[in-house]
Structures are given as C-alpha cells and as structure tokens.
C-alpha cells in the first residue's frame, strides 16, 4: 500500500516537475523576446547617436565654431620637428604639442585646450610619429 | 402486457435511431474536419499560432578612410491606413494633410480604395510621427522601415550617390557596392500565444539575418571638405556652368577628394534634377587644351628626341601649316624658346613642332599609354571613355591639334591619372575610390589592390618633367598663382575652347579653364586637378581662376597630411628663402 502511494506520488512529482520545466522554458522564451526587443531599441538609439555624432563632428561645423566662436585663425607658417617618442593621449601633461599664436590672437587656457581637441579631431589621432608643432 | 412490451421496443428503437443519427453525424463531421477540410483548418490554426518573421537586414554603412560615417541606415516610422477601419475618409484626409503636408485629394483617393493596406506617407520624421500618434486616428497605423541618412549632407555627395525609397542604390557607391551594402534577410518560424507573444522555444526554421557590410572609401572627410570649400568659393563668386576638383594620391591612385558644383544633398535627392547629381569628374568629357601638351613633351623626352636646352623656333606667334585652314597661333609671340620654356610659356607652335619630330604614330602610342580613350575602371557608375580617334582616322590637321589638346576629349579623372605619372616616377596607376570592405563583425572581407600600375615612362623623364612643370609655377610661368607658400609645386594650366555641338567648330566665348598639378614638386603626395567649365570671359584662363584653387587646396591639404605623418618622403617645406629644404 505504502509502495503504491510512493509510486503515485513519484509519478505526480515527475509530471509536476515536467510541467514546471515547460513553464520555465516559456518564461525564458518571453524574456528572450523582451531582450531582443530591447536590443533592437538600443541599436536604434545607437544609430541615432552615431548620426548625431557624425553631424557634430562635420569639418564645416568645426571650422565655423573654431573661427567664429573661438577666434582661431589659420597659421601663416608652421614648423614641424619630428620626434621619435610614442603617441601620447591628449590629456597627458607631457603632450608634445605646443602652440604659440601671433600676439594679436592671444587665447585663454580654456580655448587653448579646446583648440588642442579640435586639432586632434581635425587633424586626427592616428599618428605613428609624434611631432612638435610650432606655429608662427 | 404485450402492448407495453411493444411500446418499449418502439421507444428503444427510437432512442437507438436518435443515438445512431447523433453518432453518425459526429463521425461524419469528424471525417469532414479531419480528412476533407484538414488542410484548410490546419492553415487557419497555423495562422493563429504560427508566426513567420522576416528580419530585414540593416543596410551597411559607408565610411571614409578613417572610419567616419558618410552614410548610415536607421528605422523610421511609415504611415499606412486600413480603409475598412475609417468611417470618415474626408475628415481623416484633412487631418493627415495638415500634419504630413501630403495632398489631401491623394490621401482621400487612397482611403477610398477597397483594400486593407494603403500607404499614406513613407519614412516620416519623428515630429510627424508624434503628431499623428497623438491624434489617435482610427484606421491609421505605423510600420518601421529602414531609411538612409547622410549625416554630412552635401559632402562627397557625387561619390556616395543615393538610394531610392526602397533602399536600392541608384548612383555612386550606393549603386556600385549594392551587393555588399544590402545584406541578407533572416527568417524565423515560431509560435505565438493568445496574446500574440512569441513562444521562443517553439522556433522552427531559423536563418540569421546578415546586416550589410561596411564600405570604407579612400576619401578623407577633411580633405574632401577642404576641396569642397574652395570650389564653393569659385562657384559662388563667378557662377560658371560647373566646377570640378579631384585630389588623388599619385602613388596608389587613391582618390582623397572628389567634388563637383553644382551639387545636391543626398538626403533630398528627389528635389534636384539629374544635372546636379551628375558626377562630372567621370561623366563629362572636355578638350583638355594646354594641359595636354605635357604628353607630347614627355614622349619626346622619353624617346630622347630633344635636349631640354635645345631651342625651338616658335615662328613669332603665327605658324602656317599644311592641312590647316587657319595658321596656328600662340597667345604671345615667341621667337626661339628652349624645350623647357615651350611648356613653361605654353607655346602651341613649340609643342606642335615637338610633336612633329615625335611623329603621329609615336604620339598616338604614348597618348594610348597614358590611358586616354579608355575607362580608368574606377568603382563608380557612368564613367565615359573620352574621345581619342584611332590613328587611321587622323586628318592632315590632327598633328597640329592633338598635341595641344584639341581633337581629343578626356574626363577629369583621366587627366589626373595621366599627370600622376610624372609625380610617381613613371607609373600609370588605377584610381581607387574604395579601400576595403568589412562585415558587421569588423572582419575585412575585401581589400582593394592599391598596387595596380603599369610603367609607361622612365623615372629620368619624369624627373625632367617635374622640373619643367615646376617652372610653370614660377614667377614668370603661366601658373604663378598656383605657387604654394610652404611647399614646392608643379603643374600646368589649360584654357581650352569648348566645342559647339550644334553648329560644329568652337563655341564663341566658351572655355574650360583648368589647372592640374602636384605637390610637393620633388616627392609629390597629392595630384590635384581643378576644372572650371564656362567661367566668365574676364577670368577664362586656367592660371587665373583654377590655379588659385589649387594653391588654396594644396596648402591646407599638405599641412593636414604633414601633421598626420601621411606625406611621402621628408623635408618638404620651403625654407625662409623659399627654397625646398
């Protein structure tokens, strides 16, 4: 009698476990579908930001800002001395970029830093050779 | 007793009959449902719980050589209507007209169709979407579609081309690399529950979507901008028919910039006519005029027919030749000029005499070697062959016309490729507009061969030509306006009359002014051609209108390349005395 009860309970247990497993699989499926939707939304957002980033970095916009808002001018003479030091990050305190502009175009330290950022964007950061630029 | 037994039998029989009929009907019905109508019913059931996804691929990006995006795709909403759900089409069409700016009659016509799906407007802006969504108009729905964006606007528009409303490339890179950019749709068959949510674990057939590949151009956005900025100035100031510019790496053939004016915004390609969308650098042919003199000159040096200091008599500006109705003229009268000075002063008579010693056969051969009369095979649609008559079609006057760039027509790209031969030491390179293609994982799947070239001149001849062309840019040359402040340069001006296609001969007061050059002169990093089609009469000369554009572009481009370490050779700059260091 007890064996029959155990057997019946065992069978119910297996059936219960199987049903529970199937429900979990369904729930996981719903979760995956939700995550896929979220991934699509994030990709969409990423693409919108990519487009926005591209527009913000357009050379025309940068030149307009640098000339009209920051008062930068094209240098008349540029002397470049090539060094052999490895490429350094823009924020490094030992950056080898050195800008000295004509006296009639003195710029603040903030503008100086911003101009270095623009230099990096406009002239790129792919250099394999580090250079010291003196602009007169 | 007998009667009641009989009644019981009747009742029993009646019940049995009823049951038999019921069972019979049930069995018949089961037979009908499970065998006769099985296929249809299975289809109805599948429609209810089976989902079929087609996952559209995202069109690949187009980037410049440094990975800056020039064309990307994004999902945007499109508006459609279900006419059967719309009770008052007139009112709905009026509301949609106010928001979408689409003709009300057009909308009304579509809403009156006996269909479940009609387009109202495809690929609308975010603002339009929000306004329609807020209006909550019954029967109006949205669907997401992929739309192409060109974040840089007009920049490099003639190279990029554009796609149509169905995202099919129509011109430019979008068309040439359609197979790479398109990608492949994915497919998934799965089941859905009563709330139409996907039951992921019941997915059956599953083909992954493959997004389009990324095409990297040889174009550098910064160089492209510099070139476009300068041609914009000329176009706005002088209002010529058109202006074109090409900046090329003479060693690899990589096109660093290519621009035309008039131009267009590929984000609004439908609003401009085809004339503005034409890539004139490869579609338009013109008689190159004086810029073509370098071909005969270099051929003569290569054949060792002349010494550079050899004097050539230029007939004091007027040369009567057999086969010509009119004498050949020079713009200025010259007596004796050295070989170098014939090019420096751009003497027509001197050039023709050089070509006469060369002979028509040799001249024809060298022109063919320089690639004229054949496409360059750049990966852009619409390239023209140009006009280069076979030798047996040359007339008696051809030897007085072809050497000075008449009776022959070329595209700007053919000219810049030919000129690059002097810059790179004698190699005819194949222009390249695409550098590589990567798949969505960033793996390079195709790299363009930048080393396709053929030697057509010796390095000694090219060195001589560079020295001669440097004189053209000197103080007493025709292109002194092209001289750079910080670098040396070499080049040739051209002022060619335009052919009158209606009446024959040459059109009055219509010219093509050009300047083609490279810099720095001794170890060039760039070749630039500027072509101005129908400039005003007072500035019709190449040295006047095109040479300054070359100067402005070359100066900024070289400074940019120098700061990136992308220049060939070393020590390019002039010292304080203006000498090459």
What does this structure look like?
The complex is a heterodimer of chains A (136) and B (581). Chain A is mainly alpha-helical. Residues 88-107 and 124-136 of chain A have low confidence and may be disordered. Chain A has helices at 2-56, 59-69, 109-123; strands at 78-82, 131-135. Chain A has a two-stranded antiparallel sheet with strand order 1-2. Chain B is an alpha+beta fold. Chain B folds into two domains: 52-217, Penicillin-binding protein 2a (Domain 2); 221-563, Beta-lactamase, CATH 3.40.710. Chain B has 18 helices and 24 strands. In chain B, the strands form seven sheets. In chain B, strands 2, 3, 4, 5, 11, 19 and 20 form a seven-stranded mixed sheet that branches. Chain B starts with a helix and ends in an 18-residue tail after the last helix. The relative contact order of chain B is 0.10. The model of chain B has no long low-confidence stretch (mean pLDDT 90).
Task: Name its key features.
heterodimer, A: 136 residues, mainly alpha, two-stranded antiparallel ribbon, disordered C terminus, B: 581 residues, alpha+beta, Penicillin-binding protein 2a (Domain 2), Beta-lactamase, 2 domains, 7-stranded mixed sheet, 5-stranded antiparallel sheet, 18 helices, 24 strands, 22% strand, elongated
């Amino acid at each position: 009698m007890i064996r029959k009860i155990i057997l019946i309970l065992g069978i119910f247990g297996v059936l219960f476990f199987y049903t529970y497993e199937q429900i979990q699989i369904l729930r996981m499926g719903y979760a995956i579908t939700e995550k896929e939707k979220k991934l699509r939304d994030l990709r969409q957002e990423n693409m919108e930001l990519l487009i926005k980033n591209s527009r913000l970095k357009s050379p025309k916009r940068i030149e307009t800002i640098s000339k009209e808002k920051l008062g930068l001018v094209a240098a008349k003479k540029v002397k470049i001395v090539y060094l052999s030091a490895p490429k350094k990050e823009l924020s490094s305190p030992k950056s080898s970029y050195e800008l000295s502009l004509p006296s009639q175009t003195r710029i603040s330290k903030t503008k100086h830093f911003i101009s270095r950022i623009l230099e990096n964007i406009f002239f790129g950061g792919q250099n394999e050779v580090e250079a010291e630029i003196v602009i007169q | 007793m007998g009667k009641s037994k009989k009644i019981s039998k009747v009742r029993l029989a009646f019940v049995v009959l009823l049951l038999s009929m019921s069972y019979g009907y049930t069995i018949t019905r089961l037979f009908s449902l499970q065998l006769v109508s099985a296929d249809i019913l299975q289809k109805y059931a599948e429609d209810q719980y089976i989902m079929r996804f087609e996952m559209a691929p995202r069109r690949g990006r187009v980037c410049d050589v440094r990975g800056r995006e020039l064309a990307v795709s994004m999902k945007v909403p499109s508006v459609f209507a279900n006419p059967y759900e719309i009770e008052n089409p007139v009112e709905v069409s009026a509301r949609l007209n106010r928001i979408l700016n689409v003709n009300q009659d057009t909308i009304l016509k579509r809403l009156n169709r006996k269909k479940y799906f009609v387009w109202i407007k495809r690929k609308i802006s975010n603002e339009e979407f929000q306004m329609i969504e807020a209006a909550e108009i019954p029967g109006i729905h949205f669907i997401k579609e992929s739309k192409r964006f060109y974040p840089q606007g007009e920049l490099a528009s003639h190279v990029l081309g554009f796609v149509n409303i169905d995202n099919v490339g129509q011109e430019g890179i979008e068309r040439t690399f359609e197979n790479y950019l398109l990608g492949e749709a994915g497919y998934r068959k799965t089941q859905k529950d009563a709330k139409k949510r996907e039951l992921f674990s019941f997915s059956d057939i599953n083909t992954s979507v493959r997004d389009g590949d990324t095409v990297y151009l040889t174009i550098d956005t910064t160089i492209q901008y510099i070139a476009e900025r300068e041609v914009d100035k000329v176009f706005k100031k002088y209002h010529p028919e058109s202006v074109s510019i090409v900046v090329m790496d003479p060693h690899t053939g990589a096109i660093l910039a290519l621009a035309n004016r008039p131009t267009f915004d590929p984000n609004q390609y439908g609003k401009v006519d085809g004339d503005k969308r034409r890539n004139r650098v490869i579609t338009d042919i013109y008689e190159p005029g004086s810029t073509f003199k370098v071909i005969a000159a270099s051929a003569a040096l290569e054949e060792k027919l002349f010494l550079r200091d050899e004097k050539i008599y230029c007939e004091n500006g007027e040369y009567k030749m057999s086969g010509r109705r009119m004498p050949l003229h020079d713009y200025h009268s010259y007596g004796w000029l050295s070989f170098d000075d014939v090019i420096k002063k751009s003497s027509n008579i001197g050039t023709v005499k050089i070509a006469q010693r060369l002979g028509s056969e040799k001249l024809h051969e060298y022109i063919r070697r320089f690639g004229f009369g054949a496409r360059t095979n750049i990966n852009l649609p619409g390239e023209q062959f140009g006009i280069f008559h076979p030798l047996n079609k040359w007339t008696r006057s051809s030897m007085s016309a072809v050497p000075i760039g008449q009776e022959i027509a070329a595209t700007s790209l053919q000219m810049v490729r030919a000129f690059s031969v002097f810059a790179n030491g004698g190699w005819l390179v194949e222009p390249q507009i695409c550098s590589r293609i990567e798949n969505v994982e960033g793996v390079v799947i195709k790299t363009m061969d930048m080393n396709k070239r053929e030697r057509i001149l010796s390095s000694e001849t090219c060195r001589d030509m560079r020295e001669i062309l440097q004189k053209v840019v000197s103080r007493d040359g025709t292109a002194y306006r092209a001289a750079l402040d910080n670098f040396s340069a070499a080049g040739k001006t051209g002022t060619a009359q335009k052919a009158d296609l209606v009446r024959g001969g040459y059109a009055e007061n219509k010219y093509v002014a050009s300047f083609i050059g490279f810099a720095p002169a001794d170890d060039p990093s760039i070749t630039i051609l500027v072509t101005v089609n129908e400039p005003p009469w007072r500035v019709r000369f190449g040295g006047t209108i095109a040479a300054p554009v070359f100067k402005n572009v070359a100066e900024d481009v070289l400074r940019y390349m120098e700061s990136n370490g992308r220049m060939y050779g070393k020590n390019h700059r002039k010292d304080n005395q203006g000498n090459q260091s």
